[in-house]
Inverse folding.
């Protein structure tokens, strides 16, 4: 009798030099650097460079990289036309999945010397623009110039979405959230990207498939579901009462629990402080207080810690980011991690193809169509 590892929990299916997740003594690291140090001292562009190119950039490398990403923000006219044809009700994750796929046919990997790193940079920069372009066209019928003067993808995104100078606190918070989301070992979407890559498919296909895997509420979609929950309450007391009812009904509270971090997600402490800072700065602490109360109830009743998606929902909201953009921003940031894994998978590839135990009908005779 073979042993079935449903959900592959705890099963080691490969090696990686990109990140450690919850390893004793190491915590979360990207290429050996702790997430606490990176969140405090590095921008998202430095982290993206670290993941995709394998080392932290020096000043001149970072300047050149920022200029490159700024050039790659500009969308081809046909992509703008496609974005204009999408319904207003489209979820922006579908906008990204469609836009990334279209770029893959306009600028295929392999043509004109484009490799996986080009695809990573092009997708991170242009997916940020796609979100802004689609949002402004769908909601205000405006055709925005996707080449802003903002340095950094966080500021570029905020400028496009809000059509205003980004507040420094919001820009800094969003940049740090992008750092926190950039990489996380063999999570569902990254594993998806590695499976696609193992068939020798191109990087765009791996990223498009990963976007699909990220969309669900058990993975990236949890931050939007967490915001819907938090914003459904007026007071911490109301939240407490309702969470008790939900737990009694055995409902999942999105943004809590984690497959690997059973004693707390190190990213959650960082993003919680960012959310606290924004709440203080804005004088708007209603959602932060509600979030803290939900955290207390979940710990008391279930012993469950928040994961990154819970307090990042509150922080995003206080940055002025619309809820439907939470998971798409996760996708923009995680593209750096996904492509780092594409490159690593290619370096030592073997087709990923597990087996299943069959539990269907016994062998039986086929009755021809007209005799059934
Ligand atoms: C992330 C997640 C899928 C991990 O799942 P997992 O490792 O398979 O853990 P399990 O589903 O086995 O959970 C163990 C127990 O805790 C409960 N639990 C886990 N997360 C819970 C949550 N968010 N709310 C309520 N109960 C939860 C499960 O119901 C289960 O209870 P049981 O033993 O009585 O059946 C799970 O915690 C979850 O669904 N969380 C909500 C979605 C989320 O925030 N996703 C983002 C992840 S970064």
């Amino acid at each position: 009798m073979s042993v079935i590892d449903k959900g592959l929990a705890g099963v080691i299916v490969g090696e990686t030099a990109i990140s450690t997740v919850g390893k004793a003594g190491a915590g979360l690291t990207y290429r050996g650097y702790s997430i606490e140090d990176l969140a405090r001292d590095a921008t998202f562009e430095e982290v993206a460079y670290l993941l995709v190119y394998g080392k932290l950039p020096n000043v001149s490398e970072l300047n050149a990289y920022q200029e490159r990403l700024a050039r790659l923000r500009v969308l081809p006219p046909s992509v703008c036309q496609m974005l204009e044809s999408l319904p207003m009700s489209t979820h922006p994750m579908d906008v990204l999945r469609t836009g990334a796929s279209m770029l893959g046919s306009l600028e295929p990997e392999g043509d004109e010397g484009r490799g996986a790193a080009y695809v990573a940079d092009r997708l991170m920069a242009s997916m940020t623009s796609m979100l802004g372009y689609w949002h402004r066209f769908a909601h205000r019928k405006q055709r925005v110039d996707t080449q802003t003067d903002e340095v950094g993808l966080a500021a570029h995104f905020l400028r496009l979405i809000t059509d205003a100078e980004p507040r420094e606190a919001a820009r800094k918070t969003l940049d740090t959230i992008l750092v926190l989301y950039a990489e996380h070992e063999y999570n569902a979407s990254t594993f998806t990207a590695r499976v696609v890559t193992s068939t020798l498919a191109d990087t765009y296909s791996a990223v498009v498939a990963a976007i699909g895997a990220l969309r669900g509420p058990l993975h990236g979609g949890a931050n939007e579901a967490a915001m819907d929950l938090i914003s459904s309450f007026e007071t911490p007391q109301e939240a407490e009462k309702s969470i008790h009812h939900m737990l009694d009904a055995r409902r999942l509270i999105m943004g809590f629990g984690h497959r690997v971090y059973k004693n707390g997600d190190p990213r959650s402490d960082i993003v919680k402080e960012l959310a606290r800072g924004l709440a203080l700065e804005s004088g708007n602490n209603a959602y932060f207080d509600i979030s803290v109360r939900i955290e207390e109830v979940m710990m008391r009743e279930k012993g469950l810690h928040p994961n990154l998606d819970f307090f990042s929902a509150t922080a995003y909201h206080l940055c002025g980011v619309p809820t439907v953009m939470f998971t798409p921003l996760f996708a923009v940031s995680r593209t750096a991690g996904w492509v780092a894994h594409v490159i690593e998978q290619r370096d030592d590839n073997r087709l990923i193809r597990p087996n299943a135990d069959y539990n269907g009908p016994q062998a039986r005779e086929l009755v021809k169509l007209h005799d059934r």
Summary: Residues 16-182+331-347 form a domain with the Citrate Synthase; domain 1 fold (CATH 1.10.580.10).
